[in-house]
Amino acid sequence: MTWTWTTLDTWIVVCAAMAGMACAVLGNFLVLRKMSLMGDAISHALLPGIVAAVYPDRFANELADVLSGLPVREYLPPG
Amino acid sequence: MQELLRTISLTDYNTRVVVLGVAALGLACGWVGTFMLLRKRALMGDALSHATFPGICVAFMLFQLIADGGGKSLPVLLSGAVVSGVLGVLCVMWIRNQTRIKEDAAMGIVLSVFFGLGTALRGIIQKMPGSNSAGLDGFIYGKTASMTSFDAWLIGVIAMISCGVLLLMYKELKLLCFDESFAKGVGFSTTRLDIVLMGLVTLVTVVGLQAVGLILVIALLIIPSASARFWTDRLGVMVLIAGLIGATSAVGGALISAVVPNTPSGATIVLTSFGCFLLSLIFGIRRGLMIRQRTLRKAQQEILLRAKL
Asked: In this complex, is the C-beta atom of A36 within 8 Å of any C-beta atom belonging to chain B?
């Protein structure tokens, strides 16, 4: 397998290293405060927000479809 | 509309199988979850369910190599799940007992490492020639639609076993949950009782993997029993209510997932049980928000009255 190291790869490694450092620093306090699983809860709670942010229009439409018994669609922007 | 009516009235054989299966699962999860919640081990179910994933993947790979293309045999996958799930729980207990790391950190370590291992193995399986790993995703997110009558029977039998064990050991487990040192004092082995409880959780979780998926199976263990806590102060009543809420939300979620296209059943079951939780939180007659507000107001009025006199 041929493998060429590109600039993008450098940035990926740098990002991972920085994320790891930041998490490890905060993690000390979480473990000592006995709140280790708080990070787990927060990270899982991000997911609906990410979905709503990536597909704002589709998210609204799907929500309207699911709740179509209720008069939701009238309050949403058209489209 | 026709579709909706057909689904809700359980005309189809498939719908009936799925509904009965998830109802048994919800009931058993509610019952077992109550004791887990009161034992303050609620998140152990989460660590356990995440820890089953590498076992499923390894079982899939091994069986794929031995019996060519036969990797999707359910009993094999589920026994792999049991082995690695139990291994995960043992790791949590070992870390907690042998080091100064607390239980929550130990669970965080085990669940992320096991799930990470499983994800890596799943990546390898997808690259394996001739193997179709599509069945594995059903274990992550849940897939009630593919439930066969064999799966429903399996869930039913496991549910009956766990409910039976809970009924037989009701008194001992009650003691374990509410007064551990007294249980020790009168001669019960708390370790053994804990093992029984964890064994039941393992069984229920592993059969529940297919229905709600390993990420969300914890919801069926925690949410019904947490909701039941708002309604009563008696353990027996709480267990019954938790079973009822679990079964209702599992059936409701499975029906929603059947009617609304593109909704994984795990998600709909969790959201339905969250609806039950919200209702209990507000209207619960023992600890609900409304009753608490009312007692608080009454107490304040009484204090004011006394101050005036």
From this structure: yes
In terms of residue numbers, what domain contains B87?
A: 2-308
**Which of B217, B306, B198 is closest to B267 using CA atoms?**
B217
ipTM of this predicted structure? 0.75
- Residue spans of alpha helices (H) in chain B: 2-8, 13-38, 44-66, 74-98, 103-127, 134-141, 149-168, 170-178, 180-185, 190-212, 217-228, 235-259, 265-283, 289-308
pLDDT in tens, B48-63: 999 999 999 998 888 8
Q: Average per-residue pLDDT in chain B?
A: 88
Residues 6+ apart with CB under 8 A from B99: none
Segment B79-136, tens digit of pLDDT: 999 999 999 999 999 999 899 888 889 999 999 999 999 999 988 888 877 666 667 7
**Total domains, chain B:** 1
Mutate to test the interface with B, among A38, A40, A47 (most CBs of B within 10 A): A40
- The residue with tokens 């599509």 is B134
Domain limits, chain A: 7-75
d(CA B92, CA B103): 7
| Domain containing residue B9: CATH number | 1.10.3470.10
Interchain contact A35–B (C-beta under 8 A): yes
Q: How far is B44 from chain A (nearest CA, A)?
A: 12
Assess A66–B contact: CB distance below 8 Å, yes or no. Answer: yes
- For residue B107, list chain A residues with Cβ-Cβ distance below 8 A: 36-37
